[in-house]
Amino acid sequence: MLNEEYAIKIAREWNVPNSGVGYVTRFRVESEFLQRYPVQQAGGRTILELWVPAEELDEFNAHLAGPIEVVHEFR
Question: Which of 7, 8, 40, 48 is within CB 3.0–4.6 Å of 1 for a Cys-Cys bond?
Answer without folding.
Answer: 7
